[in-house]
């Protein structure tokens, strides 16, 4: 099957086409450093034959922290922890990429201790959900770009195989891309070219620190699925600019936390196969334009036949999984071994309940099913 064939991204050879899409684990220490539990989570994914493991979003500066127990790559003290995670994945033949992120206006100021900064001050605007946020000034933009570059250099020194820039889901760089959240005038607002400027400058800042031969990926919304947000047409244009700026691959996702049922973590059971691969057509449209970089596709992929069809048909070069690997870290290994039943994930999003309690992300539904099964067995005895 094509989905089990290797692929190379800027010299990084990945043994198959399966990706663990960046997922907030909630398993880092309060200071952002890696822990034994986070290392064990990365190890389980690599043991489960996931070819490319991408870490949960890691903040590049303290004021870009999105929440508690989030991984950090913001100080030199974080390097030993990143090295631990890389070694855990490498031990089982996987590749490890760190997702670099800045929460922008969605920053958790109670944890960062600093005011949130983003493209625009939206509080009090027509958007009732808009957070209090100070518009970035020139020195803030320069600081952010430098932070991404420094974090990427740290990851390279630590032995990570690459980095991924988080520019999706309504976080900092996604906020700049969206006309809904970017109300700036001047060089970083207004036209799409201006709204994409910061993202491209982040790529150049990273390249200036790691050179041309280190894999740099980008996660991008194919569509914000919200009025006034980044459109599908605009997203395709941004992908062109990313390829020209030196990005080595793009992962297509979609939606923001304000997009309702079209958010990145859509709730509800997925009909197989017709309801799978939310952003399939967006990926096809990007691939049809003949860009020279691989396209990774995440969102609603639950079965091996769909994963294989995406790769074999040329809709995507790699398939990325998030919630299915929370439910079953060994899913890819099971499929590879011939047990091709779809993922048992029911997309109820209960996996985030223990995350919010500070216990780390895990499949609460699976735990409840096991408990009911145990109770039923006791009743039979």
Automatic annotation (TrEMBL):
Mind listing the GO molecular function terms for this protein?
A: FMN binding; NADPH dehydrogenase activity
EC top class, as a word: oxidoreductase
The protein in question is named: NADPH dehydrogenase
Question: Where in the numbering of this chain does the NADH:flavin oxidoreductase/NADH oxidase N-terminal domain appear?
Answer: 3-338
Q: What are the UniProt keywords, alphabetically?
A: Flavoprotein, Oxidoreductase
User: Looking at the record, which segments are called Disordered?
Assistant: 110-129
Q: What is its EC number?
A: 1.6.99.1
Give the originating organism.
Answer: Solidesulfovibrio carbinoliphilus subsp. oakridgensis
Q: Which InterPro entries match?
A: Aldolase_TIM (IPR013785), NADH_flavin_oxidoreductase (IPR051799), OxRdtase_FMN_N (IPR001155)
